[in-house]
């Protein structure tokens, strides 16, 4: 399977590789060199000899790294880097340049490890090594960079998807309001500027997929239905007046008619192929492209002529913007991108919670009067403000995240409502995204509610919630809520009723809360949040 693009989700340490047909392959945990098929931990640079091989750039707490489409490409990139950039270096010189002491590294230790592991001398020069010796050096670098470390946290999974594009026959239909029903879960999405809906993942607990639009009578009309299966599907929905026709839109290999297409920012060959309903191989053959991972903004390529040619509104782009690398993990503003990573695989509402925490609240740096939103108002509660003891907004934040991701809410701003509502079920073991409900000892009417985010190696549970330090952040559950100052006790963990079967499957499989982080301080450091402090006790 050939991967043509990638996204990196920082909080869950998940690299989401996207294949030509839309299939997702997830690599979660481990060290960056393993997660990104980057055995040499090669950093991004426009002048790097490896730049043409990457399909993305990841931002981590250790800085930026190239992401390669597969292990073999990453291995060859490391070999090329050594043979071209460092060819005149000895092993001792290489380690000083590759792992400089000015960055707090120990190049002498690095050099000693390579010498012992690869059976070479510190004075041996890279350009004088035969291929076998060079690969021993590469393997030593790979080990030193931590490729084999944290094996217990490494997880891989492949997820097929259904990918849908709306078109009027000449151009994509953007901002089309669509209702997507996946079994019992409802989602309201708008198509993006390419006419695309978020990819619909074929999880094991999903069966039926239906697409609805509002007809001229103001009623929901089913325009397409399918079943999730073991292979990905790409559907073109053609609008003719008020009617939609579903087509696969495949181009015949013998098709002669062609035209030119100018590559735009964000394009990949795989993305263009999907929008044209052709294949990467056909585009590569038409244009004599040998490396399908490399196309440039402004480049003109030959494409099969047809009604599904990708078009977007023209925007002016400065030369600086044209050269700006497109980082992973981002999406069009206002477009509910459905990452297939851990945050969507388990608990889709966590995508919203993470987005709010990072973008609106900057993980505790922005306080409740400055967030530009009233979660009470957004979820139908009567509270006019989120400020003050009587306007606690932890429950409204949880309801907002549920509602935005298509799930039913508790219809109340009371933290205890999730434990008392028939829309939610109690589970005995926490899973990612479970709703943790607390009440003050001796009372059943007041407390706190938040989402389970992670477990840490020091036996803590990280909870992501609103009204924590007058903001949205991730708190250590035991240290904050069970200490005498707050004197809360856990009522239980809850999930939406429609999610209960999936939660039970996760629990039977050993759970999904991998202990990747040492403690909550390392969690916060990883997401760029302020360190743990006494302010964490401020909650209502």
Task: Give a description of the structure.
- The protein is of the alpha+beta class and 540 residues long.
- The chain has three domains: 3-150, Helicase, Ruva Protein, domain 3, CATH 1.10.8; 160-247, Immunoglobulin-like (Sandwich), CATH 2.60.40; 346-537, no CATH class.
- Helix content is 24%, strand content 25%.
- The strands form six sheets. The protein has a six-stranded antiparallel sheet, with helices on both faces. Strands 1-2-3-6 form a four-stranded antiparallel sheet, with helices on one face.
- Strand 4 (56-60) and strand 5 (63-67) form a beta hairpin.
- The model is unreliable at 249-257 and 306-345 (pLDDT under 50).
List keywords for this structure.
540 residues; Helicase, Ruva Protein, domain 3; Immunoglobulin-like; 3 domains; 16 helices; 24% helix
- Strand content range: 15-25%
The whole-angstrom Rg is 25 Å
What class do helices, strands and sheet pairing give?
A: alpha+beta
Give the overall shape, derived from the CA principal axes.
Answer: globular
Distance between the termini: 50 Å
Helix content: 10-25%
Biggest sheet character? 6 strands, antiparallel
* Widest β-sheet, arrangement of strands: 17-22-18-19-20-21
Low-confidence stretches: 249-257, 306-345
- The strand count comes to 22
Number of helices: 16
Assembly state: single chain
Which whole number gives the mean pLDDT?
82
Number of domains: 3
């Amino acid at each position: 399977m050939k991967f043509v693009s990638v996204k990196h989700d920082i909080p869950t340490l998940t690299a989401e590789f996207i294949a030509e047909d839309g299939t997702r392959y997830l690599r979660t945990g481990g060290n960056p060199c393993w997660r990104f098929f980057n055995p040499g931990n090669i950093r991004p640079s426009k002048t790097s000899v490896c730049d043409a091989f990457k399909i993305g750039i990841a931002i981590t707490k250790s800085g930026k790294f190239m992401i390669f489409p597969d292990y073999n490409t990453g291995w060859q990139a490391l070999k090329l880097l050594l043979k071209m950039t460092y060819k005149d270096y000895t092993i001792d010189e290489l380690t000083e340049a590759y792992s400089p002491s000015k960055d707090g590294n120990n190049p002498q230790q690095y050099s000693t490890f390579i010498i012992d592991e690869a059976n070479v001398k510190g004075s041996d020069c890279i350009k004088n090594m035969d291929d076998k010796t060079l690969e021993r050096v590469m393997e030593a670098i790979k080990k030193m960079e931590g490729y084999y470390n944290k094996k217990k946290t490494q997880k891989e999974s492949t997820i097929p998807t259904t990918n849908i594009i709306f078109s009027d026959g000449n151009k994509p239909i953007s901002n089309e309001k669509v209702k997507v029903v996946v079994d019992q879960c409802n989602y309201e999405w708008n198509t993006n500027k390419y006419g695309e809906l978020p990819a619909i993942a074929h999880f094991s607990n999903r069966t039926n997929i239906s697409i609805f639009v509002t007809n001229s009578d103001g009623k929901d009309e089913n325009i397409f239905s399918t079943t999730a299966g073991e292979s990905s599907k790409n559907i073109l929905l053609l609008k003719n007046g008020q009617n939609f026709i579903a087509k696969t839109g495949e181009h015949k290999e013998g098709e002669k008619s062609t035209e030119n297409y100018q590559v735009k920012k964000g394009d990949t060959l795989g993305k263009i192929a999907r929008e044209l309903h052709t294949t990467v191989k056909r585009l590569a053959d038409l244009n004599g492209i040998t490396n399908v991972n490399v196309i440039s903004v402004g480049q003109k390529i030959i494409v099969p002529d047809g009604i599904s040619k990708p078009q977007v509104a023209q925007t002016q782009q400065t030369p600086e913007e044209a050269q700006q690398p497109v980082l992973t993990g981002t999406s069009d503003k206002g477009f509910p991108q459905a990452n297939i990573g851990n945050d969507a695989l388990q608990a889709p509402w966590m995508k919203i919670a993470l987005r709010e925490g990072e973008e609106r609240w900057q993980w505790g740096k922005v306080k409740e009067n400055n967030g530009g939103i009233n979660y009470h108002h957004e979820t139908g509660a009567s509270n006019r403000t989120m400020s003050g003891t009587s306007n606690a907004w932890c429950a409204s934040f949880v309801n907002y995240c549920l509602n935005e991701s298509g799930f039913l809410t508790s219809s109340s701003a009371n933290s205890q409502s999730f434990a008392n509502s028939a829309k939610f079920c109690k589970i005995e073991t926490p899973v990612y995204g479970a709703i943790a409900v607390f009440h003050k000892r001796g009372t059943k009417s007041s407390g706190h509610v938040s989402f389970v985010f992670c477990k840490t190696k020091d036996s803590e549970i990280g909870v992501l919630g609103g009204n924590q330090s007058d903001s949205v952040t991730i708190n250590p559950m035991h240290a904050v809520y069970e200490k005498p100052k707050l004197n809360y006790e856990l009522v239980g963990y809850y999930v939406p009723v429609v999610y209960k079967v999936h939660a039970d499957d996760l629990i039977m499989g050993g759970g999904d809360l991998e202990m990747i982080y040492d403690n909550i301080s390392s969690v916060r450091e990883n997401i760029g949040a302020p360190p743990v402090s006494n302010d964490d006790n401020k909650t209502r």
